[in-house]
């Protein structure tokens, strides 16, 4: 009843601030600015920067450095990311791609041999030096700073240095990550010898700290002080970079100082589509996220046009099987067509066109998994997401990652920087599922200097040229399905953000050919999908969304998915 009243209140324009008393702790409203991240400490740091007069970019930089401290399992200077931003003054959207790249020595043959030799041991694209791609994180933050920030970099790094010195607060999500990592340390005990730093410092040699305790990271504080003094050179030409190379090579990897010095980020044009009177502005390749989201939305739009009242009219019965079919088409195309656009032609325009969606919608839900997406085309758990909006209308959606939980386990000592295992996002062994069970194709083959295909999907929904919703997620391919469903819940089903975030989430990624849920699905939903011929997986999997809704009266509603313990914060 209350939910219905809230929805009704929003529809008739009742000020949402009046409804504040009922908000859950993971939802915050303000007109002065907003940060939504998966770490309460990082959100608070960003909100303080806004309160001191910094803009959304200043805050985003401070949040990202803070996440490097408080979410070592997900992100940090050893990783990379994507930023989608709305620049208020210029009234335009732009994308920065600071995704990791494959080292110069990374050839297909090398990875084929490594995988063949690994047999039952730890997968070489997940653990060890060969999992490590050239980090782009600091290059990205420094570029954001150079172009858009108003405060000195030194000042923006400071709160993260303090957090590293005093310690971040251990929470349930951190402990879940420890559990996951320790299970692999037990499965392959040699990991304890080879990757002792993560085991001893972050995992407490098998006895992680308790929730609520502080965990200091003095080495990382030292690295951040170097970054504050030397800027990007600290990593790309200096002592931190040298430590990264030493650690990676000691773990039999390929990273060189030349790879670091040669790292280049890219500015890219966002991909755009329209849905139900809104424009959707999102991440282009080398992310698969934007293309999959737009392809799925287009297919749903075409399918829904058969019903009076569109998708809304069939939300409780036909929408779930329609969504699963659309996702299967989009993920089949992901596997076949998507990769680094600088290295391989990616038919983006075709994949996100309504004509193509009509072809796929006409096929609806073929029985054979081979018939999803197109085989021919005309030419053409780690991870952390946060959103920031400032009072001037700048909006940032930034997703960053070291890929798997605690990345490659390789640590650049003495700085405590965990290096990514982004090489596993390549199709290093075509046909073999990667860490996320994704089977990928030729377009995403490993190659020197290439960027591995990503699912990170910073996205904005736009009305009359202004963002009305900024969001993104962590969770590998579940990023795509989580962003898509929260977005549809808001713009199609007109749910308040709290309700949009709280719905059961459905995930299908074409292969494995199963539907996943984030939790036990309602019986009716499960029966409906089974009745439509879909196999349901018992395992529970989901992404973790961070979002800011920008309401017409200037209110910013920040929401941090309760699934990872984040909290939004306002100045
Ligand atoms: N490493 C996760 C992703 O980029 O999709």
List the helices and strands and how they pair.
Layout: H1 2-11, E1 27-30, E2 33-37, H2 40-51, H3 56-70, E3 80-87, E4 92-98, H4 108-118, H5 137-148, H6 153-166, E5 168-169, H7 172-187, H8 190-194, H9 196-202, E6 214-215, H10 218-230, H11 233-236, H12 239-250, H13 257-261, E7 266-268, E8 271-275, E9 278-282, H14 289-304, H15 310-313, H16 319-337, H17 348-351, H18 354-363, E10 384-390, E11 395-401, E12 411-412, E13 417-418, E14 459-463, E15 466-474, H19 478-491, H20 497-502, E16 506-507, E17 515-517, H21 523-531, E18 536-540, E19 544-550, E20 556-560, E21 567-569
Parallel strand pairs: 17-18
Antiparallel strand pairs: 1-20, 2-10, 2-21, 3-4, 3-11, 4-7, 5-6, 8-9, 9-14, 10-11, 12-13, 14-15, 15-19, 16-17, 19-20
The structure holds glycine (GLY).
Overview in brief:
The protein has 571 residues and is α+β, with helices and mostly antiparallel strands. It is built from 21 helices and 21 strands. Residues 1-19 have low confidence and may be disordered.
Attribute tags:
single chain; 571 residues; alpha+beta; seven-stranded antiparallel β-sheet; 21 strands; disordered N terminus; binds glycine
Low-confidence stretches: 1-19
Mass-distribution shape: globular
Widest beta sheet: strand line-up: 1-20-19-15-14-9-8
Mean pLDDT: 93
Distance, first to last CA: 32 Å
Helical amount among residues, as a percent range? 25-40%
């Amino acid at each position: 009843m209350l939910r219905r009243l809230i929805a009704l209140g929003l529809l008739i324009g009742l000020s949402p601030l009046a409804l504040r008393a009922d908000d859950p702790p993971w939802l915050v409203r303000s007109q002065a600015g907003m940060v939504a991240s998966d770490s309460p400490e990082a959100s608070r740091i960003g909100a303080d920067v806004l309160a001191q007069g910094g803009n959304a970019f200043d805050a985003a930089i401070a949040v990202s450095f803070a996440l490097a401290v408080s979410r070592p399992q997900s992100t940090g200077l050893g990783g990379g990311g994507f930023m989608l931003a709305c620049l208020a003054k210029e009234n335009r959207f732009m994308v920065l791609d600071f995704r990791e790249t494959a080292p110069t020595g990374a050839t297909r043959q090398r990875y084929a041999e490594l995988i063949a030799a690994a047999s039952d041991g730890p997968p070489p694209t997940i653990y060890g030096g060969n999992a490590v791609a050239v980090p782009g994180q600091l290059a990205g933050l420094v570029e954001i700073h150079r172009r858009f920030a108003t405060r000195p970099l030194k000042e923006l790094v400071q709160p993260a240095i303090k957090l590293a010195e005093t310690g971040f607060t251990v929470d349930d999500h951190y402990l879940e990550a420890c559990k996951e990592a320790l299970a692999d340390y037990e499965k392959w005990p040699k990991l304890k010898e080879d990757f002792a730093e993560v085991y001893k410092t972050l995992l407490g040699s098998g006895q992680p700290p308790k929730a609520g305790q502080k965990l200091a990271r003095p080495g990382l504080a030292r690295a951040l002080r170097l970054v504050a003094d030397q800027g990007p050179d600290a990593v790309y030409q200096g002592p931190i970079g040298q430590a990264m190379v030493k650690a990676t090579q000691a773990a039999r990897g390929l990273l060189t100082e030349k790879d670091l010095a040669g790292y280049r980020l890219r500015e890219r044009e966002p991909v755009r589509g329209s849905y139900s009177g809104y424009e959707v502005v999102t991440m282009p390749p080398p992310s698969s996220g934007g293309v999959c989201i737009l392809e799925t939305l287009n297919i749903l739009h075409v399918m829904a046009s058969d019903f009076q009242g569109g998708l809304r009219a069939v939300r409780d019965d036909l929408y779930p099987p329609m969504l699963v079919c659309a996702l299967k088409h989009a993920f089949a195309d992901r596997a076949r067509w998507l990769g680094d656009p600088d290295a391989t032609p990616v038919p983006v325009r075709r994949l996100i066109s309504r004509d193509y969606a009509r072809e796929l919608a006409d096929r609806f839900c073929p029985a054979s998994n081979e018939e999803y997406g197109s085989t021919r085309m005309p030419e053409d758990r780690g991870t952390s997401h946060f959103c920031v909006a400032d009072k001037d209308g700048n909006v940032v959606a930034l997703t960053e990652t070291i890929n798997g939980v605690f990345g490659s386990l390789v640590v650049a000592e003495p700085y405590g920087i965990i290096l990514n295992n982004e090489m596993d996002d390549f199709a290093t062994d075509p046909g073999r599922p990667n860490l996320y069970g994704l089977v990928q194709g030729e377009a995403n083959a490993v190659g020197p200097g290439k960027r591995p295909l990503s699912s990170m999907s910073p996205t904005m929904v736009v009305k009359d040229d202004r963002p009305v919703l900024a969001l993104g997620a962590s969770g590998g391919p579940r990023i795509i399905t989580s962003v898509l469903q929260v977005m549809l819940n808001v713009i199609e089903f007109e749910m308040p953000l709290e309700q949009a975030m709280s719905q059961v989430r459905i995930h299908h990624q074409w292969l494995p050919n199963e539907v996943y849920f984030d939790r036990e699905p309602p019986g009716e939903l499960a029966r409906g999908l089974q009745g439509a011929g879909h196999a349901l997986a018992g395992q529970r999997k989901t992404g973790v969304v961070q979002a800011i809704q920008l309401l017409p009266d200037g209110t910013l509603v920040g929401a941090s998915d309760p699934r990872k313990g984040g909290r939004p914060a306002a100045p």
